[in-house]
């Protein structure tokens, strides 16, 4: 794990000393948009864009889900990094389910970043949406990539399904603003904390938030009512990793997702949506966290469990 400093790779774990043991996630730095508007720098074109993902990563998983739901698979190609993220950061390789770098044939993800900007100073994160035409990074912010996938390619695909409908945008934004710090990033704030106080604060706000979500899902099918939206997909990628990884590896063990009847059934419903199970790779998920975070798990031993039947019929909407 490391970062690029003026284009040079530096192997270094997260600095939590300057923040009292708290993990503070950095903002993504490439923030352009694909748009069908006249004169747009990045117009929606088939075959022009390439997505770099890790199957382990919850943020990258969102983008794979939207690529699937919006029928973008034939329009946007994908490279998958190996789940092992060690001293060179994300790398390509022959781990089952991973690929080579299909565009440049480089070994490391940081080399893709320096192809976009040779003197860049940044963490090297996935997902990355790459523009093959200008050889630049459109975006490395999943929240923005899924919005582009939701609407920018509609004319090309003929798929007008809308996961961010205008009538629900305020509600979706409100849920996202609650779920992101407390749950999506909350598991990382608990797991990467290096003081007891920082961990305590994160884990308590995480489970308070999950209790609240359980309450919401006890009265309605989805987070904003009876329609499946972006807000649901954004929480899903954290929920599906929770019992296999976050409970043990990140010490988020006050309760399991299986202990929340409504969240568990809801998570199964989302997992069973057409195409979603194939975007979910539990081997990469478990291997990445347990094998890569050697400050947390120095033995790199990956647990076998848990045994959970995600294909069992759910009771949502019954
Ligand atoms: N805000 C970014 C976060 C992406 C992110 O942090 N990805 C993790 C993998 S789960 C990563 O690549 N971490 C490497 C690092 O921090 O050096 C997004 O949502 O796209």
From TrEMBL:
Coiled coil: none
Native organism: Agaribacter marinus
Active site (record annotation): 57 (nucleophile), 188 (proton donor/acceptor)
Domain GST C-terminal: 165-289
Name of the protein described by the UniProt record: Glutathione-dependent reductase
Phylogenetic placement of the source organism: Bacteria, Pseudomonadati, Pseudomonadota, Gammaproteobacteria, Alteromonadales
Pfam families: GST_C_2 (PF13410), GST_N_2 (PF13409)
Residue positions binding glutathione: 90, 123-126, 141-142
A single GO cellular-component term on record: cytoplasm
GO molecular function, one term: glutathione transferase activity
Site positions (Lowers pKa of active site Cys): 246, 289
């Amino acid at each position: 794990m490391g970062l690029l400093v003026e284009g040079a790779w530096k192997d270094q774990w997260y600095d939590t000393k300057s923040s009292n043991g708290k993990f503070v996630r950095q903002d993504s730095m490439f923030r352009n948009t694909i748009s069908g508007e006249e004169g747009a720098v990045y117009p929606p074109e088939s075959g022009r864009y390439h997505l770099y993902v890790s199957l382990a990563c919850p943020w990258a998983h969102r983008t794979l889900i939207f690529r699937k739901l919006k029928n973008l698979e034939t329009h946007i190609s994908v490279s998958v990094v190996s789940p092992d993220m060690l001293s060179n950061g994300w790398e390509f390789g022959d781990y089952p389910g991973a690929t080579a770098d299909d565009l440049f044939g480089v070994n490391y993800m940081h080399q893709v970043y320096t192809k976009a900007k040779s003197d860049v100073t940044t963490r090297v994160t996935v997902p990355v949406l790459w523009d093959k035409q200008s050889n630049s990074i459109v975006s490395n912010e999943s929240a923005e990539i899924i919005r582009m996938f939701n609407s920018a390619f509609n004319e090309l695909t003929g798929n007008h399904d809308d996961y961010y409908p205008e009538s629900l945008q305020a509600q979706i934004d409100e849920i996202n603003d609650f779920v992101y710090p407390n749950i999506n990033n909350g598991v990382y704030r608990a797991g990467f904390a290096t003081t007891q106080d920082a961990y305590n604060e994160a884990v308590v706000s995480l489970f308070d938030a999950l209790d609240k979500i359980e309450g919401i899902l006890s009265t309605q099918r989805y987070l904003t009512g009876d329609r499946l939206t972006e807000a649901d997909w954004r929480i899903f990628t954290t929920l599906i990793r929770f019992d296999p990884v976050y409970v043990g590896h990140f010490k988020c063990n006050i309760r399991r997702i299986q202990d929340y009847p409504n969240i568990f059934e809801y998570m199964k419903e989302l997992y069973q949506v057409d195409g979603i199970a194939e975007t979910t790779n539990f081997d990469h998920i478990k291997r990445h966290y347990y094998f890569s975070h050697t400050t947390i798990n120095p033995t790199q031993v990956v647990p076998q469990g848990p045994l959970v039947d995600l294909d069992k019929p759910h009771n949502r909407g019954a």
